[in-house]
UniProtKB/TrEMBL annotation:
Disulfide bonds join 101-438, 288-302, 465-473. The keyword Disulfide bond applies. Gene3D superfamilies: Phosphoglycerate mutase-like (3.40.50.1240). This is Uncharacterized protein. The keyword Cell inner membrane does not apply. Residues 12-22 have a biased composition (Basic residues).
């Protein structure tokens, strides 16, 4: 893409080199042989595979390995929740508006920038590893030799604060979004965050390169106040029964599978009295992302593990997020609906005349939308739990595994899963929603309204509505989808057992 954003510590070039071949390496499983076919679904899958194989045999290129030449695995692209920002590959749809279309409004839900460490993760496995490491400093060799002189960059007194590198990346990603919508960026006079310092500081940095940035207001929502704003921006905080514990047992079960193997492989490089265990493996892999986000340079911990061990780490966190904020949690659809409903109402209110018809407040706010009347680019800053519940409600990364297979077995990696959070929640990861005005095909002079969703700058079609230009969704159909969604998942307070 011509306007791709890249951070210093994120070798985006290797991502460009790999293109489709890297995607194939991520999702194509090792060949397996089955003794029998147990149902018609498997038979159909085998027939499709046979047809594809025969077609491929007729089209073998002269140099069959050219597509993978120069490929380098980059662990920073496989760290759900802890990697610096990178643009997602998506489906190959152009990032600019489709031909004949103009984006007249866009709303983004953005995770905060890089922090020193998540406090729960730090207490559970990073801090114990650091303590253990300090007691055994010296005697490391091979891939672990760097630990002899390595000092942790994690400031225990500032764990969940934005790092300087995170602030710099926020400026870059903010400018990236502004360049995508140069006319809409001129209308920004208000953005939204919560009361946490990391989201507020991210917002301040994000808007630095916007026109008249010094005049942009940052409105802060308090999680303790239950209202439509907190339900949309902080649904996990606004839901009384939400818990971060789902998926912990499954996560630990799989960690013991791959972490034990990694620990056995690396144990010969540790001091004689040092016992490496799976939690140490998890800590070192987590430090790869956090240290990179602190210093702006790739952590030496990133070079310790094999490609397979990194893919296992990615799978383990995908599993955790699927149970906690994804399709395996019955709350997720309920938590994702408030933001989607609010954006549908917002986009419905801004018509071609830029006027909702309501009487404006003294600060030029439209009381029907809660936003300034003339604003057309809407930025809201939140936490890593929120983009996944919105994506789940939309079906953007949900289960595509058929035939009754378990998408998240705890004994092995499921390479064919759809749920991949590396592409959604790196630091500064985001879900965007665009409203487009497009010429109607075959109807000169007539236009229609369409909705398109963005995940980390890459367009992602809705699985149930993609008949518009560039696989977009007609706005009227989208409003019906939201209406149906609210009929099924609209009882947020009831399901969350909130005291209204």
């Amino acid at each position: 893409m011509s306007d791709a954003y890249e951070v210093e510590a994120n070798p985006r070039k290797s991502r460009r080199r790999r293109k489709r071949s890297s995607f194939a390496k991520r999702v194509i499983p090792k060949r397996r042989e089955y003794n029998m076919l147990t149902n018609s679904c498997q038979i159909g899958a085998l027939l499709a595979l046979t047809a594809t194989t025969l077609a491929y045999q007729d089209q073998i290129p002269i140099r069959p390995l050219d597509h993978s030449q120069g490929y380098q695995f980059n662990p920073l692209l496989h760290l759900p929740g802890t990697s610096p920002y990178f643009d997602a590959v998506g489906f190959g749809l152009r990032h600019k508006a489709p031909d004949g279309c103009t984006v007249n409004a866009a709303s983004y839900l953005i995770r905060h920038g890089a922090i020193y460490a998540n406090d729960d993760e730090y207490e559970e496995f990073i801090k114990p590893f650091l303590y253990k490491h300090e007691k055994h400093r010296g005697g490391f060799s091979g891939p672990l030799e760097f630990l002899n002189k390595w000092q942790s960059p994690i400031d225990e007194n500032s764990l969940e604060e934005l790092t300087p590198s995170g602030a710099n990346d926020s400026v870059k990603v903010g400018a990236h979004i502004a360049r995508r919508y140069p006319e809409l960026a001129k209308t920004v006079s208000r953005v939204v965050a919560d009361t946490k310092a990391r989201t507020f500081d991210t917002a301040k940095s994000f808007i630095k390169e916007y026109p008249k940035s010094e005049d942009i207001e940052i409105v802060r929502f308090n999680k303790k106040q239950l209202n439509n704003g907190t339900r949309a921006l902080l649904p996990h905080k606004a839901c009384s029964i939400f818990s971060k514990s789902p998926g912990a047992d499954e996560q630990n079960a799989f960690l013991n599978v791959y972490g034990s193997r990694a620990a056995n492989r690396l144990s010969p490089y540790t001091p004689d009295d040092y016992k490496l265990d799976p939690k140490d493996i998890l800590a070192l892999q987590s430090i790869c992302g956090y240290e990179t986000g602190i210093t702006g340079h790739t952590s030496p911990a990133c070079s310790v593990f094999t490609d397979a061990e990194w893919m296992s780490y990615e799978y383990m966190w995908d599993m955790k997020y699927a149970y906690m904020v994804g399709p395996l949690n019955k709350l997720s659809n309920y938590l994702g609906m408030p933001w989607l409903t609010a954006q549908a109402d917002l986009f419905d209110a801004i018509d071609g005349e830029n006027n909702s018809g309501a009487v404006l407040d003294d600060d030029n706010t439209d009381p029907l939308t809660g936003w300034p009347k003339s604003q057309r680019l809407f930025l809201s800053f939140t936490h890593r739990e929120v983009p996944p519940v919105v994506a789940t409600a939309l079906g953007l990364f949900n289960n595509s595994v058929s035939c009754g297979f378990d998408e998240f077995p705890t004994s092995r990696v499921n390479w064919a899963r759809s749920w991949r959070m590396s592409d959604l929640i790196p630091f500064l990861g985001h879900v965007g929603m665009e409203k487009m005005i497009c010429d109607r095909p075959g109807a000169p002079g007539q236009s229609g309204e369409y909705i398109r969703f963005i995940a980390n700058t890459a367009p992602r079609p809705l699985p149930f509505c993609q008949s518009g230009p560039g696989a977009s969704c007609p706005f009227e159909e989208f409003k019906e989808i939201i209406k149906a969604g609210n009929e099924k998942y609209g009882d947020f307070d009831g399901v969350c057992e909130n005291d209204k």
